[in-house]
Amino acid sequence: MKLYRDQFIRYIEEDRLIVSVKEARHLEKALASPARVIFLLTGNIGVVKRYVQLFQQEGKLVFLHMEKIGGLSCDKEGMHFLSSYLKPTGIVSTKNSMIKLANRLGLLTIQRLFLIDHDALHHGLQSVEENQPDAVEVMPALLPSYLDYLRSKTEYPLITGGLIQNQEQMKLALCHGARAVSTGTPVLWKELPTDVKNSYCTL
């Protein structure tokens, strides 16, 4: 049974914002954010455990992006190292094999999909149903009509991110069914998008 799943779902539904940390210089700003879910896309195996612990000490849930952590191999051994030593809440990955293995190890999983074309959309939906992640992150975020479509096709919570530059773009994605928006723009980490908090808005 996965730990923290209910807490994760509650946090993204209440906060509607996920902080995506892409540079080590932004760690302090991420720590200060009211958002309680962190995507970590920076660091290497020499420092990332300390990063994970920093956020966990502040009560935040930390997800490592497997493909972005230097020196962490995207294979069975790398996943076992992550699970037993780094001990994040879960992972973000585009790789089916990593999602499946992380699921078996009891980690929370977020499958990242890039909507390049209709084939990618169709293949992504198939992968999600096969892999059964805890949530799906759809990129880029500036495709609200596809969020409507995806929400009608899958029961998994939808997160969206990529190319977000302002609160209005975040609000648009949330209005179209995203549970939360992930962003690597530090200026957007300071406050939660409260005008759409706890409910879907109508445009």
Output the CATH homologous superfamily: Aldolase class I
Q: What is the total tally of β strands?
A: 8
Largest sheet: 8 strands, parallel, barrel
Category from helices, strands and their pairing: alpha/beta
CATH class: Alpha Beta
Hey, roughly how much beta strand do the residues contain?
15-25%
Overall outline? globular
Contiguous helical run count? 8
CATH architecture: Alpha-Beta Barrel
Strand order of the largest sheet: 1-2-3-4-5-6-7-8
Low-confidence stretches: none
Number of domains: 1
Helix content: 25-40%
Characterization of the model:
- The chain has 203 residues and is an alpha/beta fold.
- The protein has a single domain (5-190), classed as TIM Barrel.
- It is built from 8 helices and 8 strands.
- It has helices at residues 5-15, 27-32, 48-57, 76-86, 96-104, 118-131, 144-153, 167-175, and strands spanning 17-21, 37-40, 61-65, 90-93, 108-114, 135-139, 158-161, 180-183.
- An 8-stranded parallel barrel has the order 1-2-3-4-5-6-7-8, surrounded by 6 helices.
- The N and C termini lie far apart (39 Å).
- The model has no long low-confidence stretch (mean pLDDT 91).
